[in-house]
Every structure is written in structure tokens, then in C-alpha cells.
Write a structure and sequence with these properties.
Length: 348
Amino acid sequence: MIECYNFQQIHKNEGVFLMEKNIRDILMNSIRDKLENIKNFEELNNTKISILGKKGFIKEQFKRMRELPKEERAEFGEALNNVKHEIESILTEKIKDLREKETQHKALEKSVDLSIPGAKRSFGRLHLITRVMEECVNIFNSMGFEVVEGPEIENTYYNFEALNTPEWHPARDLHDTFYIDENRLLRTHTSPVQIRMMEARKPPLRIISPGRVYRKDYDASHLPAFFQIEGLAIDKDISIADLKGTLEKVIKTLLGKDKQVRFRPHYFPFTEPSVEVDISFPQGKSGWLEILGSGMVHPQVLRNVGLDPNKWQGFAFGMGIERLAMLKYNVGDIREFPRNSLNFLKLF
Ligand code: DAH
């Protein structure tokens, strides 16, 4: 409750002649704090009742007016009225103020809270196979091999005959796979790019050709669509030592110096002699994983593209990218790569 001044008392004790302004100041000072500290509508209502209400401060002062000397009452009354108006307008302002604050508050509640830590955004990354492929390409580039490309839909001539694999050849059974029509198929290896390049350019040649190939295989170490990097070097003085040195260098740069590399005699119609290269499995698994086929380019293949085998020799290889990735990242099942499981891909 606001303390009520007894103006008669002030008047008597202090001998003050209460000018209208003085009365106003005294009254306003006593309630200004109260008005300024209003924080919500409830407080505003209570304050309004205690000042302007029937038993409020202003009414009380009017009652006491009688106690003043007659000649001062008019002036006091007028001052009191002015105070009343002033309070009323302060309260009206206050209502506006509170309403504004309320809408602001509501808007703020709805709006974004900038202090909450932001949602983490996960950045994409290249697929493991793309990464291993790029790494291989970089290594070969550093050794002077140029990247070239060939078509995925290939003629049977480039995929087989030019590579010394005629229709009756038993090696062709393994590769008789996805035919578009009688003379075209999804290439079963990247080796046809060798022929296309030897036809298109004059030796010496040093090329690699990364890309997709297709076969009708599907198990823990075979996919129906997978990636190979083909390699071909043609020059006047190339031996199997160059082949061995080049492949060993690439494999050890990619997989680490401690990897065991095994060259094993094999047969391919388009190389003579031919070798396959195996690498020892990483921790926990025993055995070898074949990663590439290679050899010295067969004289008949050179003749097929119009090169004289007595003048030119070369080595060639075709390596499986998924197999290299399996060894590099210790992946036990090749089918993980195209599964597109984020749980798997995020491991690397
Ligand atoms: N093209 C063979 C395959 O996919 C791999 C291969 C073997 C490629 C010997 C070559 C090579 O270039 O000389 O099984």
C-alpha cells in the first residue's frame, strides 16, 4: 500500500506553502518507483487499484483535503487531479509497453535459439573405389603413364579376336557374358583399350586405362560389374624385368613396402609369357588374393595392329581395383563396395 501523505501535517510542521507543483512532486515521487517497477499485468492491476481504486491513494488524498485550510483546498484539488491524470497516462503507457514485451517474447519463443549448437553437417566423400583408383592413377602418372579411355560397350573384335582369342578359344567361355547383339557386348576387361590405342597411335606407348568391366560372377571376391586399370607399355627394348619392376613399384607404393608380392605363371591368349600377381592378405586372414593379370604382349597381338614384333615389344597388365581396395583397407567381402551402406562407407 502506498503511504498517504497528510498534507495538513506537512503544511503545519514545515510551514510550507504548498504550491501546486510542490504537491505534485511530493505525490509523484512517492509513487513513481512503484509505477516504474511494474513487470506484468498482474502487478499493473494491483498498483492501479492501490492508487486509483475506490479506497486507493488518490481517493484518500481527496478525503483529507477537508483537513486543509479552505483557501488552499482548490489548489490542492487541482494538483491532485493533475497527478491523477498523470498516473493514468503513465499506466496507459505501461500497458502498451507490457503488450509489446509480450508479443516480443512470444516471437522470441517461436524464433530460432541461436545459442543451441547447430546440427552437425556431414560432408560427403569419395567412394573408396574412386579413391583407390585415383591413387593408382597418380602413381602411374608419376611413372610416365598417360590416362586414356575406351568404350564400355565393345565390339567382339576388340574384346576378343584382336586379343588373340578367336571364337573357338576355351578362354572365351569365361568371358561370354552380357551381349547387346551378336557383335557387341559389355566389355569383359579393359584390354580392348590396348588394341584401340595401338591402332590409333604410333609407339613408343605408355598408357593406362581405368574403367568398368562386366562379367557373370558374384561371390565374396567377384562382382558382375567392377573396375580395372589396364596398362600397356610398347617400346623397342622392353623386357619382363620392366614389367616386374613397374608392378612391384606400384603395388608397394599403394599398399606399403611390407606387402608380399607373388608372381605366378599363368596363361592369357594375348601375352607370352603370362603371369598373375597375388598379394598376401592383411592381418587375420591367410592366403593370397589375385590382383592382376599381365605378361609380355603376344607377337600375334602386335601383328594384329600392324606392329613388327621383331622391332617392338611390350608389357601389359590389367589390375582389379576392388581387389586392391580389399587389401589396402582389409575388407573381407568384395560385395561391400557396391552395397552403398553408409555404415560401411563411413568406416574409411
Ligand atoms: N584382361 C585380363 C583379365 O581381365 C587381365 C590381363 C591379363 C590384362 C594380361 C592384360 C594382360 O593386359 O596382359 O583377366
